[in-house]
Design brief:
This protein has 8 helices and 22 strands. It has about 375 residues and is of the alpha+beta class. The chain has 2 domains: about 160 residues, FAD/NAD(P)-binding domain (3-Layer(bba) Sandwich), CATH 3.50.50; about 150 residues, D-Amino Acid Oxidase, subunit A, domain 2 (D-Amino Acid Oxidase, Chain A, domain 2, 2-Layer Sandwich), CATH 3.30.9.10. Helix 1 runs parallel beside helix 5 and helix 1 packs across helix 7. The protein is globular. The model has no long low-confidence stretch (mean pLDDT about 95). The protein binds flavin-adenine dinucleotide. Flavin-adenine dinucleotide binds next to helix 1, strand 15 and strand 20.
Length: about 375
């Protein structure tokens, strides 16, 4: 397993559940979860338009809701409120998609939304979709719990171990070369996040694009009360920003996107301006929030913005779990289950595995 982010941890744990009791998770950093998996907004959001992705997010949230590590639930079901600035036609479609999977969701017009969630009076919107089973993930509990499960199942997690290249026999995987020596194996899972899709494919990497995004933590000033602790996250689908309670203050995101090479991006001051613009225009009730911390990190996407989960098209023994975009936490457990099933040669269950295949046209034509 290349990478001890949420993808590597989840697939390793799922493989042990499927009966594979010997493996290595190799991570270049001193600590697991150093990149996207430890620097995200921790929102478990089921609402998606693409049918295959919707299936994966719904399954992901169901799995999160049923998971505890050391008695600690990993999902806190706060619910999610999605705001819209247009008419409700597209909202009806989104809600119907959730209902088709048995996920409760309802459209609220402003008066009803304000009655149910008085803090929404600080937000401008034409309608809201409330999805009560969405929530916030305890990232630390999830990542550490999955790695512990993988270790108990027979995996070893080795940090400060960069994988430099793939060892091939003919075109088949025979192992990896690391900074600390060679490892022989017939199966390599590339779960290397923003770096994914290059290992063994230097001449034709998978078309995975890391995009930088900023998060901000702030405190409301004197005049507006904060969103109450445990309130649903609020995500404006049209204006493109989200906000949720965080440690007595607020976590906020302007939903910015800028291409960036794999690595640790430096924050760009323009992102704070973008956030300020959106807040002033769409949530004036938060206009006096004082921002006191920000960071940037990378979300990685295939051209069609669907995850890439499956066997490499050209290199037998190489499996990809990457391109988890902005839903890698939401989908983590379901993606792990799917990957383990495909590696094991089992059926993909209710998932549409072909939509995520590295052999799908969108990925192949971009190489
Ligand atoms: C700002 C932001 C907000 C987000 N918010 C949410 C959210 O609210 N909800 C949600 O569901 N998702 C969210 N996401 C997306 C989510 O964080 C990612 O989809 C997910 O963390 C990706 O996990 P990963 O394991 O694929 O990648 P990573 O966490 O990046 O892990 C990959 C690991 O591989 C290691 N690695 C790379 N190359 C090598 C190598 N050659 N050898 C050894 N190790 C290597 C890296 O060091 C890294 O630790 C957000 C992302 C960002 C950036």
């Amino acid at each position: 397993m290349i990478g001890a982010g949420i993808a590597g941890a989840s697939v390793a744990a799922a493989l042990t559940r499927a009966g594979l009791h010997c493996g290595l998770v190799l991570e270049r950093e001193p600590l697991p979860g150093t990149h996207a998996s430890g620097r995200n907004a921790a929102i478990a959001r089921q609402l998606e338009r693409h049918p295959a992705l919707l299936r994966l997010t719904v399954a992901g949230v169901r799995r999160l809701a049923g998971t505890c590590f050391e008695g600690r639930p990993v999902l806190h079901r706060t619910g999610g409120v999605y705001l819209g600035q247009g008419d409700t036609a597209s909202a009806s479609e989104l809600v119907a998609g959730l209902h088709a999977h048995g996920v409760p969701a309802e459209i609220l017009l402003p008066l009803e939304a304000w009655r149910r969630f008085p803090f929404l009076q600080g937000f401008a919107f034409r309608y809201a979709i409330f999805c009560p089973t969405d929530g916030i993930v305890d990232i630390h509990a999830l990542l550490i719990g999955l790695l512990a499960e993988a270790r108990q199942g027979g995996f070893e997690v080795i940090t400060e171990c960069t994988v430099g290249s793939l060892l091939l026999e003919g075109s088949r995987v025979a192992g990896v070369r690391t900074a600390r020596g060679e490892v022989r194996t017939q199966l390599v899972v590339d779960a290397s996040g923003a770096w994914a899709g290059r290992l063994g494919r230097e001449a034709s990497p998978l078309p995975l694009q890391p995009l930088r995004r900023h998060l901000f933590v702030g405190e409301p000033g004197g005049s507006s009360g904060p969103m109450p602790r445990g309130a649903p996250f609020v995500w404006d689908l049209d204006a493109g920003y989200y906000v949720r309670p965080e440690s007595g203050g607020l976590l906020m995101c302007p939903c910015d996107e800028a291409e960036h090479p794999p690595g640790v991006p430096a924050p760009d001051p323009a992102a704070a301006e973008l956030l300020a613009d959106k807040i002033l225009n769409y949530s004036p009730g938060l206009g006096d929030v004082v921002l006191h911390r920000s960071w940037a990190c990378l979300r990685t996407f295939a051209p069609d913005r669907l995850p890439t989960i499956g066997w490499d098209a050209d290199i037998p023994g190489l499996f990809h779990v990457s391109g988890l975009g902005g839903y890698g936490i939401t989908t983590s457990l379901a993606a792990g289950d799917l990957a383990a099933a495909l590696i094991d040669g089992a059926a993909a269950g209710e998932m549409d595995a072909s939509a995520f295949s590295p052999r799908r046209a969108e990925v192949v034509k971009g190489r």
